[in-house]
Structure formats: C-alpha cells, structure tokens
Specification:
single chain, 365 residues, mainly alpha, 18 helices
Length: 365
C-alpha cells in the first residue's frame, strides 16, 4: 500500500471517501455464503461416496477408515480456512503492527496484560514477525510483560484454530481453548513483568530507533478491505495447505491404524507422565494451528485425554523451537528460558487440571 510523501503539502491531502458496499457485492456475498453452508453440510456424504463408491474401498477396514477421515477432514478444514482467513484478513486491515503498538502504548501494566492478550487474538502475527514486533513494542515504551502477553497470545490463541475446533468439536472445546490460552498469556506476561528482566533483552534492541510509520488502516475503503481478505486467502492458505495436508495425513493414520487401547494408555489421564511427555514432544515440532488440529481430533477419537492433548497442541503452537530460535536474536538465553518455563508450567497445569476434572466426557459428549 502506497504512503503519502512526508513533504507533500497538507492542503493537497484528502482522506478517501469511505465507500459503502455495492448491492451487487452484498448479494454475491450472501449467495456465496449460502452455497458454502450447503456444501459444508454434505461433506460427510461426499467423502463416503468418494471413498467407497468412486475409489471402491471396503467399509470398516483400516484403509477405508483412514481414507474417509482424510477426505472428510481435508474438505472441511480447507473450507473453514478459506472462510475464516477471509474474515480475518478484513479484521487485520484494522490492526497493522503500527496501530497495534499505538493501542498498547501507555496502558497500565496489569490492564495492558489483559488488553495485549485479547488483542493478540485478532492480530495473529506469525513467529516470523516476532523480532520486528518485539523491537517495535519495547522501543515504544510498552512494558516487557505486556509485550510477552501479546507474543504468547498471538500464536497460542489462533483464530484459525478457534474456528477449526468449533467446527470439529463444538463451542465447548473452542471456548475452553480460548479461555485457557488467554489465561496463560495474561498470567505468564504478568509474571515475566514482575521479574524485571529488561536487562536480559539484547542491548541493541533498546538502541534501535523506530520511526512512527503512517498508519493508514483507518483510511481504507470497504472494497479495499475486502481485497485485503481475498489477498489473505491467497497468501495464507497458499502457504499453510501443505501443513494442513500433512497434519490430516498423520491424523488419518492415527484414526485408521493406531490401536485405541495403546494410545489411550500413553496419553490417557491415568498416566501421570503423559502431560509433560506431550509438552516435550510438542516443543521441537513445527506446525501451525491448521496443521495440528486434525492430529488433535484423531488423538481424542482414540481415547487420549483432553488435558494431555490440549497440552500437546499448546506446546506445538506457543513453544515451537523455530520461534525460540528467532527470538534469540532479541532475547538473551536466560529470558528465553524464563519464557519457556513460565508458559510451559502454565500448559502443564492446564493439562493436569483438565485430566483430573475428567472434562473429556463432560465437554465432548
């Protein structure tokens, strides 16, 4: 998006008129959404027809079950991705990095932790954005703890994961994911802020001067915001689909071939070591939310405990090794270790709590 030249005369600058949506666009949008909904409701029948009629596999076999699971979840996840990424692309047009920094700057630290965690949901910057965001936040005067609340919430409480969980498991699991993720982000950021670890940020970060970039997000017309949504679908879905397919393939294998009793014994609520093991396994993995949700679905269907599976998912999303490598550019090892420790303990507590309360039957029934 082009910016206005700083030497341009003020009287020559005019805010663009915020156009309303043409009626044709509204009608096309409503019809497209209706068609999407009708097709989404028939995905089960479509996947079964392809598996058993078109391909000719036998019902109630390992291979047939795996293929049906793969086709159904691929169609479902890709349809959900397109819809939610389009909507989020429009939301993102209101929240550029510069605008986000301006919103968080000057907030009282405790309020800032809550506000930053909430803002992280609608501004889902990926791990590759961690370094410039961190520099921008710190140099703007945002407290370190508030910055971490945002950086934890943005990947952990992922809007794509939220929608996929709602589509696969219903509102209870989606709300559980949202609430626990926000709680960890808020508390972990507050604890890090209380520890006064600013000296463990690399010195060059504080020496960096961040200019006040023009924030033109509020000047966009609605047709432009819709184009942002379409561009987001092309960019994000175009990048994540291999991870989606890989995750669904793993989930299909687990669904069709993994022995139910063995998996339940390894990741069941009765195995006290299952939660820390799930976190340890999840940290070195590199996957986004869209890729890990199908694996979560398969694990739960095989009898894995909800708390253990949630701990696994959160460790993959919030404590991924690639993100820690990127953050090492701006954080010293002690602060990174503190970040991993605080967030890891929060994930462990959530996992054990849900296993003890046996929420699997209550929420998934």
């Amino acid at each position: 998006m082009s910016k206005k030249c700083c030497c341009e005369k003020k009287e020559d600058y005019k805010l663009p008129v915020k156009a309303t949506l043409p009626m044709r666009t509204v009608v096309i949008g409503i019809l497209s959404l209706a068609a999407w909904w009708l097709l989404y409701g028939q995905l089960g029948a479509i996947s079964q027809w392809i598996t058993y009629n078109l391909i000719g596999l036998t019902r109630n076999t390992h291979l047939g079950s795996s293929v049906e699971f793969f086709l159904f979840d691929t169609l479902k996840v890709m349809m959900l991705l397109v819809l939610i990424v389009f909507a989020v692309g429009i939301v993102r047009s209101f929240f550029t990095p510069e605008h986000t920094r301006k919103i968080l700057a000057g907030k009282h630290e405790s309020i800032g932790n809550v506000f930053a965690a909430l803002l992280g949901i609608v501004t889902p910057f990926c791990s590759c954005s961690a370094v410039p965001l961190f520099i921008g936040f710190v140099t703007t005067g945002i407290p370190l703890g508030v910055t971490f609340s945002f950086l934890i919430s943005a990947p952990m409480v992922n809007e794509i994961a939220l929608v996929l969980l709602y589509g696969m498991f219903g509102w209870k699991v989606a709300a559980l994911y949202l609430g626990t993720g926000l709680l960890i982000a808020i508390v972990a950021g507050w604890i890090i802020g209380r520890m006064k670890m600013e000296k463990h940020v690399e010195k060059w970060v504080y020496a960096t001067q961040m200019g006040d970039a023009d924030d033109a997000s509020q000047e966009l017309t609605w047709p432009t915001r819709i184009q942002y949504g379409l561009d987001a679908v092309k960019d994000i879905v175009g990048k994540v689909w291999p991870y989606v397919i890989a995750g669904i393939a793993v989930g299909a294998g687990i669904h069709g071939y993994a022995p139910e009793n063995a998996l339940a014994a390894i990741m069941g609520k009765d195995a006290w070591w299952s939660v820390p093991l799930a976190v340890i396994i999840g940290i070195p993995m590199y996957s986004n939310a869209a890729g890990i949700i199908p694996v979560v679905e398969a694990l739960l269907s095989k009898g894995a405990a909800l708390g253990t599976v949630l701990a696994f998912m959160m460790s993959v999303i919030a404590l991924s090794l690639p993100e820690m490598v990127i953050l090492r550019k701006v954080l010293k090892p002690r602060l990174i270790a503190t970040f991993i420790g605080v967030v890891g303990i929060g994930i462990l507590l959530i996992g054990y709590l849900f296993n003890i309360m046996d929420l699997h039957k209550l929420i998934l029934k």
